[in-house]
Here is the input.
Amino acid sequence: MRRAIVFDLDQTLYPERRFALSGFAAVSREVERRCGVPSRDAFAVLRRTLDGGRPNALQTLCARFDLPAPLVLELRTVIRTHTPRLRLPRESAEVLRAMRPDWRVGILTNGLPATQANKVAALDLASRVDAVVYAEDTGPGKPDRAAFDCVLRKLDVDAAAAVFVGDDLWADVYGARNAGLRTIRIERWSRPSVGRALPEDADAVVGTLRDVPACARALAHAGAGN
Here is the structure.
């Protein structure tokens, strides 16, 4: 029977912090060009906000260097549209390569489709999988069922024969389970969800992507036995 494994992108196949740092570097170059703020100084401020877990990095930057507040929106666009400097972790490449011979492999990711497409290109993922779906092209995005149904159609696999791997209990685990897929949650780079009631945990929880192939095969075998 044809089987599929579908991966979330951010915080699953690579640490999203790397995209944030790449975006901050692009912003730093922009404020140096436009406002004369040394890019090294701007980047230092932005990085401190990331290390401190503060979400208002661009507002902090503008306040620190007395830049006009409306610039925040333009700098946010710089982050979203820049060509990111990213590298796919070796572990992720190895897992995708290990699954590809016997499984259909897909990626389903939330976020602005153009931004996510830039990440996919920078990580050289399109050649490593059978389908990439940008969830917000299908509707509101994960956990909406339409996103999962779309990637299953592209992979030509039934939900009962598919496993989803992600880090987020709500968008990934709840969404995939609601669409009929089995689920694996990866903990390594995950952040706790805030402000919502969480569903039950995944069918399996792993600490590293290297555990995914064996775990997915076990879940597929268990499903075949039902």
